[in-house]
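[recover] target loaded
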């Protein structure tokens, strides 16, 4: 029984959900939606993506979707059981969604890809925050194999699509190679079938 994921594969959140499915060997289908259409609003009352459909169950918010998939389907467990390990994973999922997405995707990648208005001054002003965020991830990854410890977790699957998009921008292309541990982790992530099988080639 496959699940249905609504949204374009170029979205980092959609890619995260696809990566979870691939890691757990859950068959999935991707279906795009017309943004803001009545069909979209019936799936997601705030007109965002992704949305998951599993049998008769509809769910939005990628954090809820990925946790649900991990709980309901067998296979690789992407949420640690040990409370502190789980707390670190949750810390990083929130950090990526609340801080990294804003700086790296909303304010850098979308304008650079022509999907939001481009203001070079704003992009230049973003650099200290971008470097700070890359530095925090790098220092964390200097002490552990994955972002929240020694186990691949949902946090890695939220972070990797964002770093992958940042690396395609001139700013990210210049900055990321200076962070050795982040580069090592990203290289490992990019070798995983879940990365290769979810590549939207934007
Ligand atoms: N908190 C939401 C965020 C979803 C989100 O913002 N998705 C973006 C695409 S990556 C979107 O729908 N953007 C359209 C918009 O902001 O109108 C989640 O985790 O699912």
């Amino acid at each position: 029984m496959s699940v249905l994921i609504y949204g374009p594969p170029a979205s980092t959140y959609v890619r995260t959900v696809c990566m979870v499915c691939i890691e757990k060997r859950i068959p999935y289908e991707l279906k795009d939606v017309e943004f803001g259409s009545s069909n979209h609003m019936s799936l997601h009352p705030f007109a965002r993506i992704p949305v998951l459909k599993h049998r008769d169950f509809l769910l939005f918010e990628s954090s809820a979707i990925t946790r649900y998939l991990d709980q309901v389907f067998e296979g690789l467990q992407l949420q640690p059981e040990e409370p502190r390990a789980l707390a670190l994973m949750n810390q990083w999922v929130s950090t990526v969604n609340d801080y990294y997405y804003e700086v790296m995707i909303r304010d850098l990648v979308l304008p650079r890809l022509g999907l939001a208005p481009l203001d070079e001054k704003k992009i230049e002003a973003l650099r200290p925050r971008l470097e700070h965020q890359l530095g925090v991830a790098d220092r964390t990854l200097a002490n552990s194999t994955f972002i929240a410890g020694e186990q691949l977790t949902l946090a890695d699957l939220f972070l990797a699509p964002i770093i992958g998009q940042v690396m395609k921008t001139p700013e990210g292309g210049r900055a990321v190679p200076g962070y050795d541990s982040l580069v090592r982790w990203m290289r490992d992530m990019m070798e995983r079938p879940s990365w290769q099988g979810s590549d939207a080639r934007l």
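[recover] notes: The CA atoms of residues 29 and 152 lie 24 Å apart.
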